[in-house]
Each structure stands twice: as C-alpha cells, then as structure tokens.
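Contributing: when you submit paired examples, paste them exactly as shown. First protein:
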Amino acid sequence: MFRSLLATLALGTSLVHAALTPGYSTQTIQHGGVEREFKVYLPSNSIYTGLFLMHHGWTETMDSACSYGEIEKYAEEYGFVGVCPQGLRYANGETGWNVGTCCAGADSAGTDDVGFIRKVVEFVNAEVSIPPGRTYAGGFSNGCALSFRLACELSDVIFGVGCAGAAYDHAYSGRGVLTCNPANPRPYWSQIGSFDTFYSVTDSKAGWRKYATEVLGCGSATEVVYNQDSVTCEEHTLLGPETHQPFPSLN
C-alpha cells in the first residue's frame, strides 16, 4: 500500500542496542524516562537510498507495522533502511501514539512521541549513512496521524509523509487538533479506504485539502489523475515547481 511513496526513495542518549547488520534487529533507547523500542531493517545493499519510518496503528505493534507495510520486501527492492517504532503500552493494555487527542492514553499521559522519533532518526544516522533529505514517515491509522504530526513538528528531520487510514488534523474528538506551522513544509501522500469506519473518505479528503492549501500553499483545484480498478487518485498542484499532493481512495 505504500509502494507509491517507497518508489520515490531511490545519538544524544544512553542506549542499549544490537549491532545493525542486514536483516531485522530490535533496538532500545531511553527517552522521557522510559525504555523505548523500535525495529530496524537493513537491506543487503551497503549504500542506502533513504530511511523510511513505518508507524503502527492503535492497539498494534512494531511487528505488525513491519509486516503489513512489507518493509523487508520494499527495503530490498528500493535499497532504503526501514524502521518500525513501537508506541508505549498504557494501563488499559492498549498501545498508541500521542497525536493530540488520542490514542490509548498517550495524549493524557503527554507522551513525547515526536521527541522519541527524533532520537530514533538520530540513532540510525549515527549507525549507517543515510543520504541528506531522504528520511520519510508513514503509517496506518493512529500511526498515520502521528506521521502528519511529524510533518508539522519535525520538518527538519522528516522530508515527506505517505500513509493510510487517517485524516490530517482530525482525531476522534473532531477537527482542529494540530497547529501546523512547519519550518519546512513537506509534501504528503494520503490514502483512505471507502469502507473505513473510523475516518471517512470525506474526512480524509478534507484534511488532505486543508494541508495542501494551508500548509503547502497549493491552489484549491484538484485533478483526478487515475480512476479505475476501484481506485481513484486526485492531485493538488503546488503553486510552484512541479510538486504534487496525491490522494488515492480505494474501494
């Protein structure tokens, strides 16, 4: 589901970690007074094309994100380093990311997930060589919502977002969650299924248009660039050099 984004990919903390060698490894760092985990996949090539962060959804795990994101497959195909961070588990037994108004208890706990992801990126860059400007974030559902937050608050580190199953600036309590004034506005690719029961196509399109027009300065007009096989793709065009913001809807 993230092939469109992945195809574009041609530590100041105490830590305990396994050596980064080709394949998967589980890494641990300290952040916010707690131990945080993430999985790293190094492809077999030794010159890496970029870094892609895949964030799991509400109640899910880093293992599930690596699995349905097909990180191993695409990392080997495109040569990037794949990372699947783990959200904290809270007293209710659920895992999740702090996106302002949810999820799992991360918001009420005030968990600094943005700071955690910054340290994850710093860790990887200290271990292997990642080309400048080639670090991207993605995820599903709550993990997608976190990726939107990273585009707003971590734009010095994240250079683009591609994710599924969420809506920009929208959580379970409604719209208006994020204050998004990034130092470096970044493009994003957003996808929603037409049967999504948490976020609708209407919500996701509204969020996509809001980000494209208010954050990136795109014009209000969109263009359908693909419409077949139960998939409809629209694009906003940036008012400048050939930059597009695609939005696919899957039936």
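Second protein:
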Amino acid sequence: MLWAGFPGPESQPWHNSAFDTGGNIKQPYFNRLTEVLDRADELGMVAILGLCYHGQDERLWDERAVRHPVDETCGWLLNQEYTNEINNECNTRYEYEVLQPHRVHELIEQAKDISRWGRRLLVS
C-alpha cells in the first residue's frame, strides 16, 4: 500500500517506493495512504499495510535506511491513531540481510516496540 501499484513491465527497473534512499518518508505517498486508510475505515475494511515493494530495498543506502521506515511508518500510523496491521513480508530475494528469513524477526520486534499513549500496532 505504500507504493503506487503495479507499475507495469515496461517501466523496469521499477522505482516505486514511499521512502527515499535514506529511508525517509516521501510525503505524497503518505497523503495517498491517509485517503486510502480513511476510506477503508468508512467502509469497515481492515487494511494490511506492507512497507517495501519487491525490488525497492535495493534503492536504500544501508541497513539503517531499511530500519528507518519501520520507525517512521509505525510512528506516523500511531500519531494518526490508525490501528492497522503491519505486514512484514520475508523474501529471501531481498538485498539486505535484515529482510531475509534469519533476521526479519528483528524488524517485527522493532515495529512491536514502537508505541504511543500506551498503544502499539499489530505486527506479524
């Protein structure tokens, strides 16, 4: 959901991320996310939110830039008082080890540790 949808095969290599190379939020993506989450809430729908689209991890500078969006996104969701689940996919094809099966639990725990006003997100 933090990407603009399937860009199509003619647009390879895809560059479709809500984060810059340092892992900082690109505000237009979060403006769109606000609209989507608000509408889903109006309809009684639950949104499952993914942070990293296939192949976009290669555009991040380093592991810090992989971890930073977890903090930024979870903090943003909690500050907006959303209660969405964060879906951390584990794909062995990801560039950074922290996104691979033997370490992805670190990102899950990182997301679970972020709280605001005694609230935290459901993370799996």
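If you have annotations for the second protein, write them as plain sentences, like these:
Residues 109 and 123 are 8 Å apart (CA to CA).
Strands lie at 48-50, 85-87, 115-116, 119-120, 122-123.
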